[in-house]
Amino acid sequence: MLTGAFVVVFDVFVVNVAVPSLKADLNADLAETGMVIAVYALSFGASLVVGGRLGDIFGRRRIFSLGMASFAIASLLCGLAPTPAFLIAARVMQGFCAALLFPQVYAILRVLHDEADRARAFGLLGMTLGLAAIAGQLLGGLMIWSDILGFGWRIVFFINLPIGIGAAALACAIPESRVPEPESLDLPGALLAVIGLGMLLIPLLEGPSLGWPTCTWTSIIATIPVCGLFFRREFHIKKWGAAPIVDFQIFGNRAFCLSTCAVMLVYSTPTCFFLCFSFTLQTGLGLTPLEAGGMLTPMSIGFILASLSAPKLFSRFGSSAVTFGMGIYAIGFLWLGHSTASLDGGLKSIPYLLGMTAFGFGQGLSGPPLLNIAIGGIEKEYAGMASGIISTVQQLGGAFGIALAGVVFADVLSGAKEQATAHQYAHALSDAMFCDFIIMLIASGLLILVTNISSSDKESD
Q1: Residue 76 pLDDT exceeds 90
Q2: CA-CA-CA-CA dihedral for 266, 272, 274, 277, to nearest 10
Q3: CA dist., res. 376 & res. 194, Å (int)
Q4: What pairs with residue 242 in β-bridges?
Q5: What's the rounded Cα separation, in Å, for the pair 257 and 122?
Q6: Reduced to 3 DSSP states, what percent helix, strand and coil does the chain have, rounded to the nearest 5?
Q7: Can you tell me the distance from the alpha carbon of 194 to that of 454, in angstroms, rounded to the nearest whole number?
Q8: Cα 189–Cα 193–Cα 199 angle in degrees, nearest 5
């Protein structure tokens, strides 16, 4: 299960490193290379709710295995791509396959483990997702630089083939689980969900780089009536004998609603940070991608340490440990925002080392356990649906983070009459970190409300 989660996130980040090589090899223009990155996130994010529901109906292990094997095949097609158009189409397929397998990871962890084991499982899952993001930049750059077997950038896709087929085969050891009396899937509702999410994700992901033209705002506004049609259909679908993509009864759980909002806020901050950090280091300070990746080392160490200790802390202190982690995470943003002037000192700068380590530790102590809190309070029959919803809001949060980064950098750097200086980039990064600090304070407040609601419910029981 962790292998499946790893390759999905790994492929989000590794293509960023491969873009210069594939652009030259395929003679792709700037728009085509941007599409190679964006279409994966779009097809993935827009299909997660449907993927989670398919697991409930047809069996979570079966859909995981199907998604894993098809993801491997799609990766092979990406690696064999002779033209940019072929690669873009293969990346769309890869995103859909990732949306099949990824929600099953959350759902199976929820169904197969009791509360204590689930905390440990989600701790390991969080560490895996964090390592995948880091490996996508460091390991991906190393594989391309090494030019393994002369494959160049294609190796970052070919590596998924043996991993994917192996994980699909090993999944036979996972006990099967599904809804006891599954109903037929609501295909029109699934189509509405994909269209609505796609119309929202496209402008959020592409708007910052395009300068927010009118079409981006038109797409966002048009999402409202599409979502209205989806909500109306889902409210009535049970009467027609089909399985709703989203059963709104799940939102009667107030703790789930609030923790879902907290998940979206928390997962908007890493994408905003990584994008702003990458701009500052590579464009502002002139570092290479490999050097910029090395600057993440203190964060990686803090993240791994927190992920390993999070299950024990969560078992002993409950959601208070997660709130504490959010506080450290927020302080890390504030600290990094004030120490951006020391970035040119790199790993020799003590303020930077301390701030980045605190940032990574707080992220590891808050993000993965928060997923456990959100999904752990949901009944098992809703596990796939809840996993699809949580996975989707993670992607929405990531898209909002990208949009926020674009707004902050555009506002700060547009004031430069000539090419922006390293100081101006550092100032933009500082502004972005302060925005993330505010977001984390709001998320912490939501988690405190979740804790109070859960405590009240237990007392009532």
Answers
A1: yes
A2: -130
A3: 26
A4: 184
A5: 20
A6: 85, 0, 10
A7: 32
A8: 140
Dump the DSSP string for 357-377.
Answer: HHHHHHHHHHHHHHHHHHHHT
CA–CA distances in Å: residue 390 to residues 11, 63, 93, 278: 20, 18, 22, 27
Best CA proximity match to 277, nearest among 207, 213, 360 = 360
Residue with tokens 């700068």: 349
Alpha helices for 244-296 (secondary structure H) = 254-266, 268-278, 289-294
Does the pTM surpass 0.70? The reply is yes
**Segment 163-212, tens digit of pLDDT:** 888 888 898 888 888 877 666 777 788 888 888 888 888 887 777 767 77
What DSSP state is assigned to residue 284? I
- Residue 185: its H or E element: strand 184-185
Nearest Cα neighbor of 269 from 437, 71, 17 is 437
Closest C-alpha to 36, from 14, 60, 62, 7: 14
Reported as a single tens digit per residue, the pLDDT across 282-332 is 677 777 656 666 777 788 788 878 877 877 777 777 778 888 888 888 888
CA-CA-CA-CA torsion sign (6, 260, 336, 430): positive
Cα 394 from Cα 106, distance rounded (Å): 13
Two structure tokens written together for 226:
């599409």
- State how far the Cα of 117 lies from the Cα of 250, in Å rounded to an integer: 24
Question: How far does Cα 116 stand from its chain's mean position?
Answer: 25
357, 298 Cβ separation under 8 angstroms: yes
Query: Which of 93, 140, 3, 111 shows the shortest CA–CA distance to 52?
Result: 111
Nearest to 405 by CA among 441, 429, 440: 429
